[in-house]
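Q: I'm writing up a methods section and want to include an example of the input and output format. Could you take the sequence below and give the corresponding predicted structure tokens, formatted cleanly so I can copy it straight into the document?
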Amino acid sequence: MTGGQTVMKYAYYPGCSLHATAKEYDISTKAVCEALGIELEEIPNWVCCGASSAHMTSELLSLALPVSDLVIAKDMGLDTLVCCAACYSRLRVANAQMVSDDGHRAQVNEIVGTEYSGESQVRHLLDVLVHEYGLDALREKVTRELSDLRVVAYYGCLLSRPPEIVAFDDPENPTAMDELAAALGAKALDWPNKTECCGQSLSLTRTDVVLKLCRDILQSACDRGADCIVVACPLCHSNLDMRQAQINRQYQTQFGVPILYFTQLVGLALGLEPKELGMSKHITSPSKLLAAKGLDKRKETA
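A: Here is the clean output for your methods example:
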């Protein structure tokens, strides 16, 4: 299936972050999908997937929460589209359990009050764009030149691991976001930190560890000559975007590296204006970079 051959429609699960601290991810996702003709129908009355507190306290709760959302998607007759890497992981884990574990399936079905056994497939938007819509079809939609933009793709922990659950990329050397960036015309740089942890789970308890981990990621990106870091996880984004001032004070560095969602990169290539992609909501502003690269205005199609 490619973007030019059939209508693509999904039950959209935004999750908590995309309705709050990562609103720009939600904004850019909807803008890009509209531009590409991908229909999103938000799951009505969705609830938190439980990441990451539920699976640390109750295995049944960690399954029942995402399954309650997947049941609605099943009733909608649609597969589920997710953008948050943490939500994606939890929904995929729940689906795997509901398919393969008879004991847990029975218990969870009793909790949610209906029968469910993994009928709604869970897809990440990155996977859909690269492997379903297709890079060739995406190239045909590009209206803005990105060849002067050097990016590194940061996947973090949850987007490609564990491979038996998430299953659409190499767990140690994922390439989907790199391939996407290259298809859009940007220069995707190779680097060794694409799957290194940013420390999000320690964000409140061991901030010192988080600052060190994020400093290393930012430094590696700068050493490679990257203009920006492209991410697919709102938790990674919050650490790398929000903590640069703290890192600069702690380590006497001068980082000012824009952290963009891959949906924002796609939107820029499609000719959308930065404000249509929520770029004013970043803590580390990308405005100087966008102006320097001529990406700060809407690019109208011919």
